[in-house]
């Protein structure tokens, strides 16, 4: 899953001075299709799961041609291309970051989200004030369903602050005033929005063939919701005519049958040694034979196709021949990749094969790379190593976090490593040269008892016992259930007792609901972590929220009207999100909902739901851990409590660390941006944002002043206010 319907939290006074901690989501419908209720006792399905198709619609075969209109810019594709190598690259901004710049999504190529700037400190951060607010202009129009969640982190290179809107317009701003210097209008249509209108960031590239001072010597690159790569001149915003077809590359080439919004790019494609690495998300839960999750390389100078990594065709790195397509249903990667220029590798966070909650139809090749970090050779597209975090994943534990390159302290020396956070809360560390673990990985027995026919579970799963996990508790208990009154607590205890639960990795069930904990929104997601290499301190903000799921038969899915997005009878549902899915082409569908009290909208497990943790990577011990986020904008029945009590609320977005001894992080459903003391974990400052801060902030210096920027675009799934505001702070001067 890409983004999540989150569960708000709060605290207030009830009755005779009795304080009950509350967790509310208001009208939580984001997981529910029109006539689908969350799993409840008594919803057990008794009919045989043998039927695999919707009788009203015959699934298109994997070799169905691509219909017209899917190539958004009508880009001529030409004949299928053979593998080739990129144009030799020159040194890039990510290789030598200037002191005041933030040149990539994670600050630099490592993704560490650490800045050496220290004008803003623990002593003066309370003096921060708004320097400017910039409006992207990207908001739902009248009559459009709100799918907006910009998730954008700008970059700053030299005299420009570069960013993209939720609908892929690109712009350059004056870093001191926010004045728009240019705008490129991408022309993405509303129909191309997948679950979310989001553009996490853009990429800066310096040409090796066009001299300095000429157009497109320096360029800005993005991937779009309608599957294009676009390069524009960094100074003017005009398309780079020599890239692709007049500045654009069609990523739908070779993908075969699809419909708008089925596949999209929401993360910035890294450029490694002259190769653009393009990944894309594929809508979850739709059908087994969904479009391919293929990873591809393109020349950063020309847009020329370089290679493809098709999981089921590992030895064929060219484009498909006429009438053929990339293998359908293979695992996709939707989050932020990390490029390693020194080793010539890109580290790819992988999801699972299509039909997230049913694995019986997956091939051995798909099982081998699902929910893994894969290191690809950027010259050939060949995997160099694979490290798997979940075996035969049917819990939607795809790796949403960007893998972080660190030089891991090992006694009196360091080892080049990759730090891998995940939704389970387990944190793994591997050697980035080989993929071999640098801390113990233990295969522990897990439950395997499932009544889903033919879908056997792995008897063990990997754990990382020597690296602190992001978890409050390993297993839920009935006594952990609670509510704003004894009756609410009793309701949740009954709901717990009537579900199937055997701890982590409880297998999916048909006969009754089952509890998934951590939920698919648990641990770290696309916000990932931040790391200060000068101190060895790592910081992560993470979720603690279970799910209440149930597998349903094909007959039941048909009765409930669950249809894949490419079904001609499909109709968008304003209340629908990712949870319930038809999983067409398989015997079963899936119903997923938060584990909550449906009458009050409160979570059934006790808070905290959001946490902030600091880990000393030298000792591999937790320095401090605190609940993260207040109840001010949250409460039961969707009502804000207006109480500034730190409870720990759900979050989406990552932290950054500065040399001033600060952590800046928004992400929470309290609509605040926060500053924490890195050493103590004490919150020092916060400010109310005009929309939800579901993005990762950044910081930069310009004309001697340090700024902190956060996209306060809100998040429709998290039910935070949606805006088009980039808010930038600085000290008075």
Automatic annotation (TrEMBL):
Residues 102-708 form the Pyrrolo-quinoline quinone repeat domain. Keywords: Oxidoreductase. The keyword Acetylation does not apply. Residues 77-86 have a biased composition (Pro residues). Residues 44-61 have a biased composition (Polar residues). The keyword Transcription regulation does not apply. It comes from the Bacteria. SUPFAM superfamilies: Quinoprotein alcohol dehydrogenase-like. Residues 35-93, 441-467, 565-587 are annotated as: Disordered. InterPro entries: PQQ_b-propeller_rpt, PQQ_mDH, PQQ_rpt_dom, Quinoprotein_ADH-like_sf. It holds the Pfam family PQQ. Its cofactor is pyrroloquinoline quinone. PANTHER family: QUINOPROTEIN ALCOHOL DEHYDROGENASE (CYTOCHROME C), QUINOPROTEIN GLUCOSE DEHYDROGENASE. Belongs to the bacterial PQQ dehydrogenase family. This is Glucose dehydrogenase. The lineage of its organism: Bacteria, Pseudomonadati, Pseudomonadota, Alphaproteobacteria, Acetobacterales.
């Amino acid at each position: 899953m890409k983004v999540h319907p989150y569960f708000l939290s709060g605290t207030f006074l009830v009755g005779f001075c009795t304080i009950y901690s509350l967790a509310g989501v208001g009208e939580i419908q984001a997981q529910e299709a029109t006539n689908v209720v969350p799993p409840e006792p008594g919803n057990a399905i008794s009919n045989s799961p043998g039927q695999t198709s919707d009788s009203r619609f015959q699934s298109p075969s994997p070799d169905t041609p691509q219909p017209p209109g899917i190539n958004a810019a009508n880009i001529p594709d030409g004949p299928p291309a053979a593998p080739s190598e990129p144009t030799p690259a020159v040194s890039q901004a990510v290789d030598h970051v200037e002191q005041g710049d933030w040149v990539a999504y994670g600050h630099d190529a490592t993704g560490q989200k650490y800045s050496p700037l220290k004008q803003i400190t623990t002593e003066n951060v309370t003096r921060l004030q708004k320097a400017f607010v910039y409006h992207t202009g990207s908001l739902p129009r009248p009559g459009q369903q709100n799918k907006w969640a910009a998730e954008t982190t700008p970059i700053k290179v030299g005299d420009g602050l570069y960013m993209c809107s939720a609908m892929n317009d690109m712009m350059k701003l004056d870093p001191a005033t926010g004045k728009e210097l240019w705008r490129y209008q991408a022309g993405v249509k509303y129909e191309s929005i997948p679950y979310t209108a989001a553009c996490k960031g853009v990429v800066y590239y310096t040409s090796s063939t066009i001299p300095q001072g000429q157009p497109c010597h320096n360029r800005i690159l993005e991937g779009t919701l309608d599957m294009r790569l676009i390069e524009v001149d960094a100074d003017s915003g005009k398309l780079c005519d020599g890239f692709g077809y007049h500045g654009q590359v069609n990523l739908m080439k070779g993908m075969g049958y699809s419909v708008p919004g089925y596949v999209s790019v929401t993360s910035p494609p890294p450029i490694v040694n002259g190769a653009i690495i393009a990944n894309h998300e594929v809508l979850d839960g739709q059908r087994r034979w969904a479009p391919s999750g293929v990873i591809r390389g393109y020349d950063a100078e020309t847009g020329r196709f370089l290679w493809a990594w098709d999981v089921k065709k590992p030895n064929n790195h060219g484009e498909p021949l006429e009438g053929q397509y990339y293998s359908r249903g293979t695992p996709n990667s939707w989050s932020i990749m990390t490029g390693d220029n020194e080793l010539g590798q890109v580290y790819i966070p992988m999801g699972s094969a299509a039909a997230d909650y049913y694995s019986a139809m997956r091939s051995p090749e798909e099982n081998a790379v699902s929910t893994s970090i894969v290191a690809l050779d950027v010259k050939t597209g060949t995997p160099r190593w694979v490290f798997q975090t979940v075996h035969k994943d049917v819990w939607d534990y795809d790796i949403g976090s960007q893998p972080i390159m660190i030089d891991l302290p090992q006694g009196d020396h360091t080892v080049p490593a990759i730090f891998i956070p995940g939704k389970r809360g387990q944190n793994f560390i591997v050697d980035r040269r080989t993929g071999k673990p640098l801390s113990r990985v233990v295969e522990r027995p897990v439950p395997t008892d499932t009544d889903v026919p033919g879908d056997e579970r792995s008897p063990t799963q990997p754990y990382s016992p020597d690296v602190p996990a992001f978890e409050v508790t390993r297993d839920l208990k009935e006594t952990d259930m609670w509510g704003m009154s004894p009756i609410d607590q009793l309701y949740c205890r009954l709901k717990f007792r009537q579900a199937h639960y055997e701890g982590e990795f409880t297998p999916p069930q048909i006969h009754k609901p089952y509890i998934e904990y951590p939920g698919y929104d648990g641990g770290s997601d696309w916000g990932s972590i931040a790391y200060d290499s000068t101190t060895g301190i790592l910081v992560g903000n993470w979720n603690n929220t279970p799910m209440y799921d149930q597998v349903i038969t094909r007959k039941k899915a048909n009765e409930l009207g669950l249809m894949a997005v490419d079904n001609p009878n499909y109709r968008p549902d304003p209340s629908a999100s990712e949870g319930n899915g038809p999983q067409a082409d398989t015997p079963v569908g899936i119903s997923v909902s938060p584990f909550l009290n449906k009458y009050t909208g409160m979570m059934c497990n006790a808070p905290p739901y959001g946490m902030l943790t600091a880990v000393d990577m030298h000792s591999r011990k937790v320095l401090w851990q605190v609940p993260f986020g207040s109840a001010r904008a949250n409460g039961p029945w969707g009502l804000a409590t207006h109480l500034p009590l730190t409870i720990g609320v759900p979050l989406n977005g990552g932290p950054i660390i500065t040399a001033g001894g600060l952590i800046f992080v928004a992400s929470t459903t309290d609509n605040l941006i926060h500053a924490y003391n890195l050493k103590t974990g004490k919150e020092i400052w916060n400010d109310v944002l005009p929309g939800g801060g579901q993005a990762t902030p950044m910081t930069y210096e310009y004309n001697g002043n340090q700024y902190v920027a956060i996209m306060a675009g809100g998040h429709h799934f998290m039910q935070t206010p949606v805006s088009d505001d980039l808010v930038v702070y600085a000290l008075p001067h």
